[in-house]
Amino acid sequence: MDVNGFVRSDYHNPDLATAEQEVLDELYLGWLHYWNHESREDFHNGMKGARRFYDFPEMLSYDMFGNTIRGSFKEHFESIFPYWNDGQMEFKDLEITAVSRNFAYSTMIQHTWGTAGGTAFDTAFRRTGIAHRSPQDGKWRWIHEHLSFPVDMKTQKGDFTASLEPSKGFKLQ
User: Which positions make up the signal peptide (predicted)?
Assistant: First the structure.
């Protein structure tokens, strides 16, 4: 358990530590740098810099905005990313687990804040990602992401801070 009370999984294979480090460096630290330092300027380029993190033909996404099936992520990306590009981001409890030298999954709480379409926002959510090493160029890219908020089942409202305690949010009455 770390200082935040986060318990790492037992599924880490020491032989795959290099792959996990590559995913951290290329995808997660790369994405943080892009989002916090490049995305606002990249808006004028159609968010081309963000495209390097995704395998568009293989990408599946289930996020706060709905389900995006394989083959339709480009349309989703082009409508969502420019709208949400004016923000900052940080990660909490990031854990990357390589299952082979070419595939890895990750879990975390992602905190994002800024403005979207001119409206201020500050939100946190669970992010689960699956990445693969591209056979074409050897770079790690996401092929699946799931973003979600906890929901208070009684009020049927999402908790945009990801702080709802599971023991309090599951009851319908």
Answer: none
Helix, strand counts (H, E) of the chain: 5, 8
Q: Per the structure block, which two tokens stand in for 2?
A: 């770390």
Task: Please name the residue that has the structure tokens 């699956």.
Answer: 130
State pTM to two decimals: 0.88
Q: Going from the N-terminus, what domains does the chain have, and what CATH number goes with each?
A: 14-169 (3.10.450.50)
Q: Is the pLDDT of residue 3 over 70?
A: no
Q: Is the Cα dihedral 23, 62, 94, 121 positive or negative?
A: positive
Number of residues written out for the chain: 173
CA distances from 156 to 140, 150, 153, 165, 171 (A): 37, 10, 5, 15, 10
